[in-house]
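Structure request: Golgi-associated kinase 1A, Physeter macrocephalus.
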Amino acid sequence: MAAFQTWRATAGPTLRPHLAEGRDLPGVRNRALTGGRQAGAPSPATGAHQWPGSVGELQGSVWCGAETPRLSSDLRTSEQVPPWLTEQDVQTLQLLAQGQVVGKARIPGHGQVLQVGFSAKGALQDLSPGLSHLCSQGLCGLIKRPGDLSEVLSFHVDRVLGLRRSLPAVARRFHSPLLPYRYTDGGARPVIWWAPDVQHLSDPDDDQNSLALGWLQYQALLARDCSQPGQAPCLGIHRAEWARLALFDFLLQVHDRLDRNCCGFEPEPSDPCVEERLREKCRNPGELRLVHILVRSSDLSHLVYIDNAGNLQHPEHKLNFRLLEGIDGFPESVVKVLASGCLQNMLLKSLQTDPVFWESQGGQQGLQRVLQTLERRGQVLLSHIQTHNLTLFRDEGP
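Returned structure:
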């Protein structure tokens, strides 16, 4: 923890969200970001609240307007940080984007990613072999493939909607002599924060889960009242967590979690579920398994989202509604953002805080199509909620 505190001390001034005078959103006005949490803590900085209070208040805020506030692309100097990014988020994003690479390691069975350890000016150098000490202090990240850059967008979608379940992600161009050439060829790559307390099953063939869960068992969980997650059949996870996850995956069309076998839509021939013949199992629901169902040891009742590269090219007539199966309600605060019509402008402002990602995608013009896609999917989800008369619940807890 001392190493991460040293990074925080050298990363720049304390940042506070800013809203136009007279247009503050409830819960944001007095939210002084004072920090105080360990890097591995799952919840946002102390004092963060759910927002907005109403659709109208969100629409009247500076963050919904087409005109961009005077944002700096350098989070160390910007005083106008979007209110959906906590102090903890900002510090972790700075670490991933600017931290000096001091070590690397391969992840067994995952050859497409590289784990790296970071240091910062003024931090004590870790001379121990491997990265375990750095990673236990929250000073590690995963460098992924250039094709996974959409995970950066997914992180910002998570924060703009107020879900706060995805691990921080940035785009970065590496120049470290410690890295293989393919990581330093000038191309932008996503870097995902390595949360030190994510739980993994001991089975090497199922290490991308904290718990083994089949489709039928998952549907049975949704049918139960798991408002008290301590009940044995509920696996310790609050029922509302599944609604948040389903909403997130539907907007981004992330299939490789709730529907790895592509049972809910017609996949392309090049999709892994086709190439690996996973779709053949759709005839027997008892064989279907969920993947990337993860929790953290510091907060066993809340899910954490990884591998969030969605499918933003997926046509609207092929949307996978199986991702919403069994869900009978959604968080009210998230629905307010979707109903406000502000999602595109909020995402534009959020993504500008990542200059490498912004440039790699062609700026506002290059991002316009994918953001319009997300906006339309949000409207489709709202129609789904109305058509099926689904309930809205108020968020409780982090």
